[in-house]
Amino acid sequence: MKLDGQVAVITGSGRGIGRAIALAYAREGAKLALAARSASELQEAVNAVAALGAEAIAVRTDVTSRKDTERLAHSVVERFGRIDVLVNNAGSSGPIGPLQVNDIADWVNTVNVNLTGAFLVCRAVIPVMLGQSGGKIINLSGAGAANAWSNMSAYCASKAAVVRLTEVLAQELDGQGITVNALGPGSVHTSMWDKMTAEAAQAGADFIHQLGLRVTSGGGASIDECAELAVWLASDESGALTGRLISAATDDFRSLPPRIAEIMAGDAYTLRRVGLD
């Protein structure tokens, strides 16, 4: 098994992509700490993991709370003694519509969940990983990171920032045994997409509405591919790859291991400005 005995923390793991990653990690032998705001969803996820024969704990967590994120890290170490993998999956689609009419509190909260949440959980977990001289951090990006979508300024801005945060953290932790990568899941049909599709229709955001209809009708990316990529990034197969954005929908990550040294020597899979020759 690829993650046998590894201890993984997964935020936003009560449903959707986070839950799928949790189940994939369980099948690969990981011990899990599942974090989310909904206690009932967390318990259902823990039960599903247990049914696969894996050990898991549920830690109710608001990733925008410093107190909660520090308690999360403490609870995991207290139970398992270490943290080998962190998956920052908790996220929000945010308000839909032109920026000037977005609700300010909703806009700021989206940035807090998507970006500040990843920062706070990393801040709580990194000292643990440094103390054990190793670990892997996986930050969930999104299609909004690489694409500018009208009427979704909070989502796109925060997800692009997550990728840059990933790159900066990878540089700061270079040589200390910790890799940090961003995972682009593609447009996976989750409850977030159902919400986005309905709100886009109300806001008259036609592009987002039509995209949402395509995703919710079965034309989206594969949640299984996303979970498989999350396993790959957490396992030894991803080696020294760090500071990169890898897409489950468009990148053939299975073919990357022989090219990791080449990738790390250049700007592939990073956010960089491209100009005319």
Protein described:
The structure is a single chain. By secondary structure, the protein is an alpha/beta fold. The chain has a seven-stranded parallel sheet with strand order 3-2-1-4-5-6-7, with helices on both faces. The longest helix is centred in the middle third of the chain and has 28 residues. It has a single domain, classed as NAD(P)-binding Rossmann-like Domain (Rossmann fold). It has ten helices and seven strands.
Quick take:
The chain has a single domain (7-189, 222-264), classed as NAD(P)-binding Rossmann-like Domain (Rossmann fold), CATH 3.40.50.720. The protein contains ten helices and seven strands.
Question: Could you give the topology of this structure?
Answer:
Elements: E1 7-11, H1 16-27, E2 31-36, H2 39-51, E3 56-60, H3 66-80, E4 85-88, H4 104-131, E5 135-140, H5 143-146, H6 153-172, E6 178-184, H7 191-203, H8 206-219, H9 223-234, E7 245-247, H10 260-264
Parallel strand pairs: 1-2, 1-4, 2-3, 4-5, 5-6, 6-7
Helix pairs in contact: 1-2, 1-9, 3-4, 4-6, 7-8
Keywords:
alpha/beta, Rossmann fold, 7-stranded parallel sheet, 7 strands
Any idea what the CATH superfamily is called? NAD(P)-binding Rossmann-like Domain
In which range does the helix fraction lie? 40-55%
For the termini, the CA-CA separation is 47 Å
In the residues, how many domains can be counted? Answer: 1
Cα Rg: 18 Å
CATH topology: Rossmann fold
- What sequence of helices (H) and strands (E) makes up the elements? EHEHEHEHEHHEHHHEH
What is the level 1 CATH name? Alpha Beta
In DSSP terms (H or I, runs of 4 or more residues), the helix count works out at 10
Residue ranges: pLDDT <50 for 5 or more in a row?
none
Strand content: 5-15%
Instruction: Identify the CATH architecture.
Output: 3-Layer(aba) Sandwich
Biggest β-sheet: strands ordered side by side in the sheet: 3-2-1-4-5-6-7
> Largest sheet at a glance?
7 strands, parallel
